[in-house]
Amino acid sequence: MVIHNKNVDELQTYFKTHNKIKEQKAHTSKVHSVGWNCDGRRLASGSFDKTVAVFTLDRERINKDSTFRGHTGSVDQLCWHASMPDLLSTASGDKTVRIWDVRAGKCATIINTNGENINITWSPDGKTIAVGNKEDLVTFIDTRTHKIRAEKQFNFEVNEIAWNNTSDLFFLTNGQGCVHILSYPSLELQHVLKAHPGTCICIEFDPTGKYFATGSADALVSVWDAEELACVRVLSRLDWPVRTISFSYDGKLLASASEDLLIDIAHTETGEKISDISVDAATFTVAWHPKQYLLAYACDDKDSCDRRRDAGNLKVWGFSE
Q1: H or E element in which residue 248 lies
Q2: Which of 48, 61, 128, 152 could form an SS bridge with 123, CB 3.0 to 4.6 Å?
Q3: What residue intervals traverse the membrane (predicted)?
Q4: Residue 1 belongs to a domain
Q5: Mean pLDDT of 49-67
Q6: Radius of gyration of the chain from Cα atoms?
Q7: How far apart (Å, rounded) are the C-alpha atoms in residues 272 and 152?
Q8: Contact 137, 119 (CB under 8 A)
Q9: Mean pLDDT throughout 191-214?
């Protein structure tokens, strides 16, 4: 039996009048990754066009601030520093990690790595950047020295990587539907969770630290108690592999997206549907704002004038009508 929560009604009502979308041209090709900085004033996107775009949020306006060039391969994922709002890290197929100082408007550091990078995560304490590559090697970079602190090769398909909120456990999802949990910095295996029957694609931690969620090729989203490492509920409203998930700043909402032509917004505590966002193409990246109910996302849209070209647009949902 699903216990209906008063908060569910309030949230459902809120989004009936806060469902306006703002759209911006961000890139000349597909957008792979979007993310807000810690104070919520900037939104970044990384693209197949090898650039990083940074936007500013001013009340209900999103303005393009700058475009950063330098990567010679696709920018596959980005991650901001958890407490320093001007520092942004990017992972690219060009075998580098770059750290950008967006206020100074330049690349602050380039770290060379041993493969084509596809995912990146910055530890909440700011001390380490972890980056994964196509050969399932995860590299740990000391952000004070910009030197490689450790490398760990896995003998299975590593899909996404994440830290817990205290930066002492490192999580990765794999092709066998499992979540591997390693201690950090010792990188010793602590637990293996059998999360899904299909490939486990994405993982995200709730900002409050209570939950984490995983998305899978079986079209399911599992919500886990971060302390007990127990699955507490499963969301099953999508029909296609879940590519991307994001918790709202207060942990109350969980957005999930796939090749379905909608983004699902769920109530974390009950799993009930709060709202959804209609889209015209597969969605590969979603990110909630760190202080308010605004969801940034990017789809595999085509240019309205030339269907052979990627639109390269970024969208933000949740503005008042």
Answers
A1: none
A2: 128
A3: none
A4: no
A5: 95
A6: 18
A7: 39
A8: no
A9: 97
- Is residue 59 one of the residues assigned to a domain? yes
Q: What region does 43 belong to: left with phi over 0, alpha with psi -120 to 50, or beta?
A: beta
Query: In the chain, what is the straight-line distance between the N-terminal and C-terminal CA atoms, in Å?
Result: 35
* 158 phi/psi in degrees, rounded to 5: -95, 125
Element (H, E) at 282: none
C-beta of residue 68 within 8 angstroms of C-beta of residue 55? no
β-bridge partners, 24: 314
- Show Cβ contacts of residue 6 under 8 Å, excluding neighbours closer than 6 positions: none
> How many CA within 13 A on the CB side of residue 66?
12
d(CA 283, CA 32): 9
Dist CA 66 CA 26 (whole Å): 10
Q: What is the CATH number of the domain that holds 230?
A: 2.130.10.10
Please report the pLDDT score of residue 2 as a whole number: 45
Spatial distance between the Cα atoms of 125 and 255, rounded to a whole number of angstroms: 25
Quote the CA–CA distance of 297 and 239 in Å, as a whole number.
Answer: 19
**Tokens found for residue 224:** 């886990």
Per the structure, the complete domain to which residue 119 belongs is given by 6-319
Q: How many domains does the chain have?
A: 1
What's the pLDDT score for residue 116? 96
Q: How many helices (H) and strands (E) in the chain? A: 1, 28
- Residue 63, pLDDT score: 95
Structure tokens at 26: 């961000």
List, for residues 97-111, the tens digit of each pLDDT value: 999 999 999 999 999
**d(C-alpha 51, C-alpha 300), whole Å:** 17
- The rounded distance, in Å, linking the Cα atoms of 277 and 300 is 15
Provide the token pair at 310.
């990627």
Does the structure show a pLDDT above 70 at 281? yes
Query: How far is the CA of 311 from the CAs of 28, 57, 69, 74, in angstroms?
Result: 7, 21, 19, 16
Collapse the DSSP code of 100 into the 3-class scheme (helix H, G, I; strand E, B; otherwise coil) and give the result.
strand
